[in-house]
Amino acid sequence: MKRIIIIGPSNIGDGVLVMDVIAAVCRTYPDAQIGLVVGERASMLFDQDERIHRLWAIDTFEGALGRIKLLIELMQYRAEACVDLRGTAFPLLLAPKVFWRYLKQPPKRIVHMHKRHLWKLSHQLPEAAASMDKKDKPSLWQSASDTERVNQLWSRWRLSSALPVIVICPGARSHIKRWTVEGFAQVADRLIEEHEAQIIFSGEIAEKGVIDDVMELMTKPAYSAVGMLTVRQLAWVMHRATLVITNDSASLHLASNVSTPTVAIFGPTDATQYGPIAPHHQVLRRQLFCSPCKVALCAYNHECMRYISADEVYAAADTLLHEVERV
Questions:
Q1: Which terminus of the chain has a smaller tally of CB atoms within 10 A, N or C?
Q2: Burial group, residue 99, by CB count within 10 angstroms (0-12, 13-18, 19+)
């Protein structure tokens, strides 16, 4: 097979969740050229990714005319197979002989989006099914510049391999998915005091204010990587770290992809659908009648996040740190 088109999601976190699909396709067809259609935010994950022959940012094709232009470009790519994880109508024209494969949807018992994407792959491109369980390393691409940047930070901050390195991501695109700044500060201070942890805060530029607020509340020093890393470089910082503590955000899925132990804090969203899949993880959430609500604005007073205590988050982190010591 010479060319394959994969149609993926828009956001960064969802983009991370399809990495294993891309890796499975590449293992099945190592000589194929991969054309990838994703949202503009997700496209940054694939910068310099040598597995991707052609990249389309679907957001740049606006309106009906834009979609027609995109369809024409996809047809001109002349792919021999298509994997549609987005649920578009494109496969009806890109793969008309097997269009029925794209009408099938994963059964309701398959809840997590990572598994739902793999299910779609196995039904839309059955030849790749045998490669889905052969993951022996992170499916996220790592370029030479990614490696160099991570090494630079480790040298700049003189991080010790003898002490735990913990990445904390207190932000999230939606403010209602954010745990309290006071809680993050208390947990970070306690990890430094009781584990001599080296704390790195990270997030998007838009989350700098949240991270600054957390660090101002702390009594002990920590590092901030805001504005210093690409999304993919953050993943490789996590890969080298001992533990990640995060809200339900892209950071959670980055940590899972590189198999770093993760404490995930959930409130309005569903952990069964978007929770961590790293081998070692802890999920913290409050079982309230309104949660998960999956809405943009809280109808109450954000109790699902506020009622999670710093002691609970610290205990989860402490448990994972001891698990890592025994491995």
A1: C
A2: middle
DSSP at 58? G
**Residue showing tokens 């009622």:** 307
CA distance 296 to 118: 28
* Number of domains within the chain: 2
pLDDT for residue 288: 77
Q: What is the pLDDT of residue 326?
A: 63
Range of the domain at 166: 145-326
User: Are 35 and 162 members of one domain?
Assistant: no
Q: How far apart are CA 188 and CA 203, in angstroms?
A: 16
Alpha-carbon gap, residue 135 to 322, rounded angstroms? 26
Mean pLDDT of 298-316: 87
Kindly state whether residues 45 and 179 are assigned to the same domain: no
**Is 282 in a helix, a strand, or coil?**
strand
Cross-strand pairs, 84 = 7
3-state secondary structure of 265: strand
For the stretch 86-136, pLDDT in tens is: 999 999 999 999 999 999 999 999 999 999 999 999 999 999 988 887 776
Residue 77, CA distances (Å) to 34, 134, 263, 306 in order: 10, 29, 42, 50
Over range 124-149, report the average pLDDT: 88
Q: What number is the average pLDDT over the span 9-22?
A: 94
